[in-house]
Write a structure and sequence with these properties.
Rossmann fold, binds uridine-5'-diphosphate-4-deoxy-4-fluoro-alpha-D-galactose, 3-stranded mixed β-sheet, globular, 7-stranded parallel β-sheet
Length: 346
Amino acid sequence: MKNNILVTGGAGYIGSHAVKQLLETTKHNIIIVDNLSTGNLKTIKTLKLIRDFKFIKLDLKELDKVKSILKDNNIDTIMHFAAKIIVPESIKNPIDYYINNTVNTINLIKIAVDMKVKKIIFSSSAAVYGEPDKIPEDGIDENFQTNPINPYGMSKLMSENIIKDVATVNDDFKYVIFRYFNVAGADINYVGNNLTPRIGQSFPNATNLIKIASLCATKKIEKMDIFGDDYDTFDGTQIRDYIHVDDLADAHIKAIDYLNNNSSDIFNVGYSNGFSVKEAISSMKKVTKEDFKVNISSRRAGDPVNVVSNNTKIKNKMGWTPKYNDLDLICKSSYEWEKRYASKTI
Ligand code: UFG
């Protein structure tokens, strides 16, 4: 079945990787809306080389325009990526996060239901689980208690609840909510034997570990910090579940068909493998053969010690099979993107 899909935030990091796969592996009609606050036009131009699609520069606050876009393009499916995503920023500016993430989502859902949109695929986060005291041996599953510890996580949990409530009273409206673990890496694209990502994370103020390590490896910044090495883990640094952005994008493509035959649901998207901060930095140094300075600094406020998914549900119910479950490849693709294309504004 050919769908008419609206992708909000399609010029951003994760959204653009989903659009890449939609363009390459499906025949769906794609319409991207993005306010270009963190996404960029270069990404749109690169994606258009794969196959043409409509791009509209628009902020989701422009409700009348969103409504017209849904109507004019006969949209049946929304992939809603557009959001603010920096945890420390959310602590400083909670209102911004609740408006951009939660209020925009309520408005979008209201219009979507009014316009008879059938499906939404929503980007949530492992941040909804907060800071678990003790995580189970086989990782955090979707029934684990939600308890966000910052406005970012709360803005996502509130959005999840709104989507669920609306779907309960609208039989024709279904959702897949994805709770992303630590997304990293860039477009796996080979030219000959050379890994040559066409798109990647370009947002200049990104704070994620693997992005920062790739900035060091490309000498765009001189050194980086490890936020605490006195945690109760095997090497004293925190554990995360790093997932390649292309595998995450693939889950979104699967979700479109999944919703044709199944009911609404929530899925973790991670590899169920934990790596420490030190292991991630070592992997970056190893695959790039670049050394850089790493300081041990104090703990970062609000960091949970150990966040690893249980991904049994998405594998079993959606048939999702990760292709890039390899920390070295995640680091290598991030580095190659950084080296060749990323913005040099840092
Ligand atoms: N870290 C460092 N130095 C850095 C950057 C990060 O030591 O320069 C450490 C952090 O303390 C943490 C790990 O690397 O232990 C990962 O940190 P990130 O900033 O890359 O990611 P977070 O786990 O803090 O957060 C990410 C996303 C959030 C999402 C969360 C869900 O950025 O949007 O995962 O688990 F909510």
